[in-house]
Amino acid sequence: AKMAGSFVLNTGARMPSVGLGTWQIDPDVVGDAIYAAVKAGYRHIDCAPVYRNEKQVGFALKKLFEDGVVKREDLFITSKLWSGDHAPEDVPEAIGTTLKDLQLDFLDLFLIHAPIRIKKGTTPSHENILPPDIPATWEAMEKLYDSGKARAVGVSSFSCKKIEDLLAIARVPPAVNQVECHLIWQQDKLQKLCHSRGVHISVRLDHLYLGSAGLSSLAILLSSLLLRSCRRRLLKLPYAGVFKWVRVYFQKAPMKQGLRRTLTYLSGPFLKI
C-alpha cells in the first residue's frame, strides 16, 4: 500500500501527513472504514470522544493488529480532550476512558479539543459555558506527556492570541494546533506564528471529502475556475491543488472506494512544502 509522507513534530516524533478523520462517521461503519483505510496505506487516525465512535474505532484497531495488517508502532493515533473535561482532575480520567475505548496503552497525540470550557456532562450552549482556565488544563496535559500516556500534546482551534498565551506559560509546548484552514480561510498569520514557534499546523476539513461538499462556501470553492484550472494543469482532482500548501489533511471518508485514490492524490509532492 502506498503511504503518505510525514512531518516531524517538536517532540521529534513523525506525524503522517494524511489522516483519516472519524467525525460524523456512523459507529456502524467506522470500523470498516478504518480497516479499509489502513489497508490502503493510511497511518494516521484522528478520533475524539465527542464523535461517539471511539469504541468502534478500538475494535477496528484491535482487529488490524490481530490480523497482522499493521503493528501499533506503525500507526499515529490522535484523540482529544472534550470541553466538559477541562478541570485538571478530569483530564486523567478523560484520557483513561479514551485509551480504554480505543484499546490502546498510549496516544501519539492528545489535543485540547477547543479553547472553550463547559459544565461536565453537558452540551455546548450558552448556559453551560464556564470561564476557561487553560493554564490549569495544560498543566494536567503536561502530566499526561510526562507519564507517556500521550506522546505529544497539543491544541485545536486556538487563535494567535491563545497560542501566544499558552506558550508563555507552557513547560511542554504544544506540538500541534489543529485548525480549519483552506483557500477561503488561509489563516496566514496563525500559520506564520505557529511555524515560528515550532507548533505544527494540522488542517481539519471535516466538511470536504471526495464526493461531497458539506458547506455551500466550500462547494463554491471546489467548483471555482481556479480549481478547475489547477485540475487541468495538474491532471489531478481539484483537491490536490487545494492541499499543495496544507500541513496535514484529515479526510472524512464514509466510503471505502475513495480511500486509496485520495491517499495517492494527497501524497507525494502535493504535501512537500
TrEMBL record:
Species this protein is from: Aegilops tauschii subsp. strangulata (Goatgrass)
Ranges where the NADP-dependent oxidoreductase domain occurs: 18-201
SUPFAM superfamilies per UniProt: NAD(P)-linked oxidoreductase
Protein name (Swiss-Prot/TrEMBL): NADP-dependent oxidoreductase domain-containing protein
InterPro entries associated with the record: AKR, Aldo/ket_reductase_CS, NAD(P)_OxRdtase_dom_sf, NADP_OxRdtase_dom
A GO molecular function held by the record: oxidoreductase activity
Pfam family, one: Aldo_ket_red
Domain of life: Eukaryota
